[in-house]
Amino acid sequence: DQQVKQNSPSLSVQEGRISILNCDYTNSMFDYFLWYKKYPAEGPTFLISISSIKDKNEDGRFTVFLNKSAKHLSLHIVPSQPGDSAVYFCAAPGAGNMLTFGGGTRLMVKP
Amino acid sequence: NAGVTQTPKFQVLKTGQSMTLQCAQDMNHEYMSWYRQDPGMGLRLIHYSVGAGITDQGEVPNGYNVSRSTTEDFPLRLLSAAPSQTSVYFCASSPGQGSFSYTFGSGTRLTVV
Known about the structure:
The complex is a heterodimer. Chain A is mainly β. Chain A is about 0% helix and about 55% strand. Chain A contains no helices and eleven strands. In chain A, the strands form two sheets. In chain A, strands 2, 4, 5, 9, 10 and 11 form a six-stranded mixed beta sheet that branches. Chain A has a five-stranded antiparallel beta sheet with strand order 1-3-8-7-6, with no helix packed on it.
């Protein structure tokens, strides 16, 4: 049973438009969430995070929104750039402070 | 500062062979962990360690062993490789309790034939 789910395996967006990546979770004990970005042949790198005491966190072009009642978070990228093309994972720390990951969404930003 | 170093980057094994995937970090991080990445499954936790001499199982530990004799190193052993272990393996480290600053290695792509 996946505790963190990303239901869209891929997303294609035009350069300059908004990209919205979604993530759902089932474990109500999760109180911190992270988004990682992964390029081919590289390890995941941290992008942005949010604590459950907030409903929004912004860092430049990247904003994460958290809806605790719906157990849903989303990552907004505005404006999207070709260099943003990557796989994005949402994750939450669970047992032992270790991360539980969603299945990932492959974002393709077309020039 | 090298961060998290994984070796080898690529490996092909025959079914039944054993091998060790190496992971070393130079950040004096307390926590280390191993994940495998499979298509559509994200990254799944295999084993983790919260300090030298302490290890625990993650979500998918079967067929793998770990040990943590030093803070820096956290090797992953495949005892008898199976085709189901074909995957990309990532090692990660973080400073410790209360820190969510995880650093990942660049991965080892393993194929078992």
